[in-house]
């Protein structure tokens, strides 16, 4: 009987400040320590080990590499594919650097033969398991690889087989990701013993005809604000340990939670800005936040005053003063009757944003193909998501601006183009 660990969407470097950065790398270290203690035979990382392909936070890289070296010195090989955040147009990312140091092996090895993508499997020396995979590319551009995939060749593999991927699957997408690019399951090779997924930030196990054990582990900690909200609402975070011989015999989800979370939602409809400030301050004063990550959603329509009249930084600091580890406060659904917001009946903000970008992308005059058509729309939406992030109370203005620039360049991956 053998065991392997399956994790994905670690997003090291997504949280770069104080305690949150410590918790992020701490979740990774804990997962690796569990793998050592449980003496797994190997580890599969299905993309997005780091939050950007070329991290600037070298201390996080140092800690991760040190722990990965400890894992490999314990005789546990690590296999990985690119996630959408690991990918770079030059095909040289931190994943390649770590591989060149002998600390992991990329399992994406393919050649094009007569318009067919033929994947070469990597055989784990100890267990004989055969691993193949398709890496993600920025903004879902890996679809062409699935279209070209020589599935019949892969379906002839014998022994225990693992197919690693980093994308959503049409038939399995959660409702909140209904607009996300995804791949139909029919483009995957049939008959593999385990499909090691990444990209979907919720852990789940699925069984489809011809595709048994399609598994998404979700993140070890959190890469986005939505992750923190889901965690605070009860979503467990961790990875899988899979037992197998000729087939999968057991799939166990192992949690890596290091801190408690609390979620609260407030509807301020009918209150003016002054009353809303007092109401929130009073409510925050009775929350049990000590040692917890606090996730807050503020919505409604103020009866008077501007939303900017409410001092949200002061309100967040009230929670920090009472021992909150971190505070994530969303107020995008808060408007004021005195200052009319633009609304489109029956549509939410994400649909409106996408429609506006599609309507106006043609007005952009550029020879850069990534900024044109559907690719340009996708990049614009991703860039907008990054630029919506509020300033962390622990950041000064220069730090916030530097983070915004770094995140924007990480989304665009166009530094070399502009330098030309």
Discrete helix count? 12
Number of strands: 19
Give the CATH superfamily of the largest domain.
Answer: Metallo-dependent phosphatases
CATH topological fold name of the largest domain: Purple Acid Phosphatase, chain A, domain 2
The top level CATH class name of the largest domain: Alpha Beta
Low-confidence parts: 341-347, 414-420
Spatially, the strands of the biggest sheet line up as 4-3-2-1-15-16
Mean pLDDT across the residues is 87
What share of residues is helical? 25-40%
Strand count, sense and barrel status of the largest sheet are: 6 strands, mixed
CATH architecture of the largest domain: 4-Layer Sandwich
User: In the residues, how many domains can be counted?
Assistant: 3
Proportion of β residues? 15-25%
* Global shape: globular
Instruction: Kindly name the structural category.
Output: alpha/beta
Whole-number radius of gyration? 23 Å
The N- and C-terminal alpha carbons lie at a distance of: 55 Å
């Amino acid at each position: 009987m053998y065991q392997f660990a399956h994790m994905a969407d670690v997003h090291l470097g997504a949280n770069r400040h104080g305690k949150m950065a410590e918790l992020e790398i701490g979740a990774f270290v804990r997962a690796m320590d569990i793998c050592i203690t449980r003496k797994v035979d190997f580890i599969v990382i299905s993309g997005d080990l780091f939050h950007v392909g070329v991290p600037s936070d070298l201390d996080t890289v140092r800690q991760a590499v040190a722990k990965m070296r400890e894992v490999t010195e314990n005789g546990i090989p690590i296999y990985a594919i690119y996630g959408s955040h690991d990918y770079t147009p030059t095909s040289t990312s931190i994943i390649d650097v770590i591989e060149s140091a002998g600390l992991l092996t990329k399992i994406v090895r393919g050649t094009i033969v007569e318009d067919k993508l033929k994947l070469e499997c990597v055989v784990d020396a100890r267990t004989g398991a055969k691993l193949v995979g398709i890496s993600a590319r920025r903004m879902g551009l890996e679809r062409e690889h699935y279209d070209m995939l020589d599935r019949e060749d892969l379906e002839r593999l014998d022994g225990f087989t693992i197919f690693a991927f980093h994308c959503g699957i049409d038939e399995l997408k959660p409702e909140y990701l209904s607009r996300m690019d995804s791949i139909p399951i029919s483009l995957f090779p049939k008959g593999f013993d385990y499909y090691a997924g990444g990209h979907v930030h919720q852990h789940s196990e699925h069984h489809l005809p011809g595709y048994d054990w399609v598994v998404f582990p979700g993140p070890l900690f959190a890469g986005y604000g939505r992750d923190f909200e889901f965690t605070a609402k009860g979503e467990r975070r961790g990875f899988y340990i899979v037992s197998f011989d000729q087939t999968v015999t057991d799939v166990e989800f192992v949690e890596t939670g290091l801190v408690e979370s609390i979620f609260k939602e407030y509807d301020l409809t009918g209150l003016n800005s002054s009353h809303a400030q007092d109401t929130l301050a009073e409510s925050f004063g009775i929350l049990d936040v000590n040692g917890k990550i606090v996730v807050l959603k503020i919505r409604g329509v103020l009866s008077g005053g501007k939303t900017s009249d409410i001092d949200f930084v002061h309100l967040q600091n009230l929670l920090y003063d009472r021992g909150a580890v971190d505070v994530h406060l969303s107020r995008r659904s808060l408007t004021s009757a005195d200052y009319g917001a633009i609304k489109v009946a029956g549509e939410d903000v994400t649909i409106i944003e996408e429609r506006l970008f599609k309507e106006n992308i043609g007005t952009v005059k550029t020879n850069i193909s990534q900024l044109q058509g559907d690719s340009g729309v996708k990049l614009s939406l991703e860039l907008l998501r990054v630029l919506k992030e509020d300033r962390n109370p622990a950041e000064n203005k220069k730090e916030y601006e530097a983070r915004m620039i770094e995140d924007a360049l990480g989304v665009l991956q166009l530094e070399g183009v502009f330098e030309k």
